[in-house]
Specification:
six-stranded antiparallel β-sheet; single chain; 15 helices; alpha+beta; about 500 residues
Length: about 500
């Protein structure tokens, strides 16, 4: 029972106790007034004690149908024990209790029968009394039926109220869900706009990892890329110790999208070809006081992240095209070496480093008799000869050194902060080129100029290295010459 029902029950109990007490006092005065004014014998005392026990006992009973039955039995016993049929009038009290108690269809018939038994036992069974009793019986049944109907209506209203509350709760949950979806869509929109500023492939790869963390407060995100016949983990973020995460995933397994309670997998494509996949573990949502609790992934989550990933991959496609365009703008189309403009840009950068005390040398080389080679074997073989020279240069210089094609058959090499003598490097390159099998031996003439002694700018170093190269050609070709050795000649 709720607090209102408890207070109502206590009020009924107190009221009934008061009226029972008054009623019993009236009956005692009526039945035993004359005896009380003379002498009180033992039998009278017992009768008074029994009446007092009735008043006290019924006051302890709760307001329910059980107390109705108990009191009816007690009244029946009192009428027989005390021998006063007028005590049947006490049935008005259980009648009052039954009116406010929850009863069912069985009680609707049992209670009136008990009332009739008490009344008919107390009164003479003549036609008037029987008619009165039957009228009372009918009246009681009608009232009980009305009460049952009211109880059914109350139950119906309670049920409707519960259904409405459940419907309202579902609507609230749906509103919260829609608000979360709207928030995620706004996040997707904002992050998609920021993708225009990210044209570096490494930044876009970081975005593939950070977006699921932002959208779902994910505990762990792993990015896999295709590596021959499998997916290999490229990068991950978060605490992966709690999850069964492998470093590699088979192509067949990784191709299937997954939406589980606490895990979601999204295959990634670039230009209609499989590129990789993302594994996302443990979605969390914020509740009271910023606390985050795990919740299940759903299909809307998959659509959200898959849509955003497609935008990232679209940006990556453009980033790759931009990178390829930049490479094409900086490299020679035939040899894939730095073109003249890019070589000079790198030259300027290394000159700034040289001014801080680092060594810098410029080697220039030219293929001997290249025009004759072209005329004899054709331009296709001439192009192949240029490719042979470029491959040897890329193989036998260090990664930090800059190699470029700066003319038709002319190449340049910037040797930065070399630990060995530059002529030895040049000589090794010259020999390696001459040993490459080809339709005819390829030889090169080379010239070297040093930052500081031979010049401190591009123009002077290029002019002096070219002079040393020319000297090599004029004096037999297929050799290396340093400018410092010919400047006095």
């Amino acid at each position: 029972m709720n607090n209102t029902e408890i207070r109502r029950s206590k009020s009924y109990t107190v009221a009934l106790l008061f009226f029972r007490f008054i009623f019993i006092l009236f009956l005692v005065g009526h039945f035993f007034g004359e005896q009380l004014s003379h002498n009180m014998d033992t039998s009278l005392l017992i009768k008074l004690v029994v009446l007092a026990l009735y008043v006290f006992g019924t006051s302890l009973l709760s307001i329910n149908k059980i107390s109705v039955y108990i009191e009816l039995v007690a009244i029946f016993v009192l009428t027989i024990f005390l021998g006063h049929n007028e005590l049947a009038m006490l049935t008005v009290f259980p009648l009052a209790v039954s009116a406010v108690s929850h009863t069912n269809k069985i009680d609707m018939f049992v209670m009136p029968i008990l009332f009739l038994i008490i009344i008919l036992q107390a009164l003479n069974p003549n036609l008037i009394n029987i008619g009165f009793s039957l009228s009372f019986f009918a009246f009681f049944i009608i009232k009980e039926l009305e009460k049952i109907d009211r109880q059914k209506e109350i139950k119906r209203l309670v049920l409707i109220s519960g259904e409405r509350e459940e419907k309202n709760r579902k609507l609230e949950m749906e509103v919260l869900s829609r608000e979360k979806e709207t928030e995620n869509l706004m996040d997707v929109f904002i992050r998609t706009k920021s993708l225009n500023e990210k044209m570096d492939i490494d930044d876009l790869i970081e975005e593939l990892l950070s977006a699921p963390k932002a959208f779902f407060n994910a505990e762990y995100v792993a990015l896999y890329v295709i590596d021959e016949d499998r997916y290999r983990m490229l990068k991950a973020t978060g605490n992966g110790k709690r999850f069964d995460v492998g470093k590699v995933i088979s192509l067949k397994t990784g191709a299937e999208p997954i939406i589980e309670n606490h895990r979601m997998r999204i295959p990634i494509k670039l230009e209609k070809s499989s590129w990789g996949l993302i594994d996302i573990h443990e979605k969390k949502e914020e509740v009271v006081n910023g606390q985050k609790i795990p919740v299940n992934f759903n299909e809307d989550d998959y659509v959200t992240i898959a849509t955003y990933i497609s935008q990232v991959m679209f940006s990556m496609k453009h980033a790759k095209l931009l990178a390829q365009t930049e490479i094409m703008a900086q490299t020679d189309g035939l040899t894939k070496l730095a073109n003249r403009r890019h070589f000079e840009n790198q030259f300027n950068y290394l000159l700034k480093q040289a001014k801080r005390g680092y060594n810098l040398a410029l080697i220039m080389l030219d293929i001997d008799f290249f025009k004759k080679f072209n005329d004899t074997y054709g331009h296709q073989k001439g192009d192949e000869a240029l490719i042979v020279v470029s491959e040897v240069l890329q193989t036998y210089v260090r990664e930090m050194d800059i190699v470029g094609r700066t003319g038709g058959e002319e190449f340049s090499v910037l040797i930065y902060n070399a630990n060995e003598e530059v002529p030895a490097i040049a000589e090794r390159i010259r020999k390696k080129i001459s040993l490459v099998p080809f339709v005819e031996q390829i030889t090169v003439s080379m010239g070297i100029a040093y930052y500081g002694g031979d010049g401190d700018n591009i123009e002077d170093l290029t002019k002096n290295a070219d002079k040393a190269l020319y000297w090599s050609k004029e004096n037999g070709r297929n050799q290396v010459t340093e400018y410092k050795d010919i400047e006095d000649k």
